[in-house]
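Structure in, sequence out. Go:
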């Protein structure tokens, strides 16, 4: 099977998370971290990001073991990005308690020569200006997979539109589709998004699975039933990481979505990245085959 290389940009964070199952402080988190660890179960992505001097050595070891190269992971003087979230009783909705940019405030990624020719680039959730900056430094034309969040739709639409213009595959939550287009009809709003750039749009429906809209068609994937959702943080990023790893290995879009879905199902079974790291290869294979049948 052909394997291409992946460049991955996003946040690397220390998260404080409260769910109905408890509270954890300073967990290894961030969009790029979840995506890298998920993808890293299959291929070794190369990471672009920044951490502060307070970043735990255990976290560094995990990233080292997960990634191909960390040439563009900068360690800067100052605190690591921190995010706090508290989930509602329904387990799905959440409030952001705090976002402390720390070293991300002055982050201006600069790609090493090694990383300037990726086959795939996964722009995980981060300010679209940073996503653009990384795209601008690629010497080739990689397949661009982009994830975003409602915050950027609300605050940085211009930059987001520029990123979307250069995006091949957009990952977006159901609610963000409406935020982005102002339209409620799923078919129409996806067409509107496709007219902004991405030929393929993957809409994530949370516990109801995901739908892929290539041009003029659509197909959906369900989820793996999970007995107890402990912490939903990072499910979308884990999905994205799994998906991109699949595409890089030459899987069909459907099989790549299945891989993403399987990885998201592990993610939510424990706090932080624990369950993605601990899942056995056999468990991963068995969830993929459950979704494929
Ligand atoms: P998700 O549950 O998919 O929204 O992803 C949660 C992860 O996104 C957490 O680990 C956070 O550290 C990270 N995160 C939260 N807010 C932001 C932000 N504004 N920019 C980048 N990453 C963020």
């Amino acid at each position: 099977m052909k394997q291409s290389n992946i460049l991955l940009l996003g946040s690397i964070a220390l998260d404080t998370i409260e769910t109905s199952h408890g509270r954890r402080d300073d967990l290894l988190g961030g969009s790029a971290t979840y995506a890298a660890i998920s993808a890293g179960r299959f291929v070794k992505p190369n990471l672009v990001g920044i951490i502060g001097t307070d970043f735990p050595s255990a976290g560094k070891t995990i990233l080292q073991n997960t990634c191909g190269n960390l040439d563009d992971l900068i360690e800067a003087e100052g605190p690591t990005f921190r995010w706090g979230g508290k989930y509602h009783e329904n387990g799905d909705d959440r409030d952001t308690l705090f976002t402390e940019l720390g070293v991300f405030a002055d982050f201006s990624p600069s790609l090493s020569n090694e990383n300037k020719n990726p086959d795939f680039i996964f722009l995980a959730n981060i300010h679209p200006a940073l996503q653009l900056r990384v795209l601008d430094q690629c010497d080739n034309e990689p397949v661009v997979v982009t994830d975003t969040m409602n915050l950027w739709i609300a605050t940085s639409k211009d930059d987001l539109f520029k990123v979307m213009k250069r995006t091949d595959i957009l990952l977006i939550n159901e609610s963000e589709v409406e935020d982005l287009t102002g339209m409620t009809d799923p078919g129409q709003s996806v067409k509107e998004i496709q007219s902004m750039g991405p030929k393929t749009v993957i809409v994530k429906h949370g516990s109801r699975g995901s739908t892929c809209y290539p041009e003029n068609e659509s197909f959906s994937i369900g989820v793996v039933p999970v007995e107890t959702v402990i912490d939903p943080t990072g499910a979308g990023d884990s999905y994205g990481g799994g998906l991109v790893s699949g595409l890089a290995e030459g899987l069909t879009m459907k099989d790549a979505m299945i891989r993403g879905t399987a990885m998201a199902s592990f993610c939510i079974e424990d706090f932080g990245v624990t369950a993605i790291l601990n899942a056995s290869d056999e468990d991963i294979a068995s969830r993929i085959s459950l979704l494929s049948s």
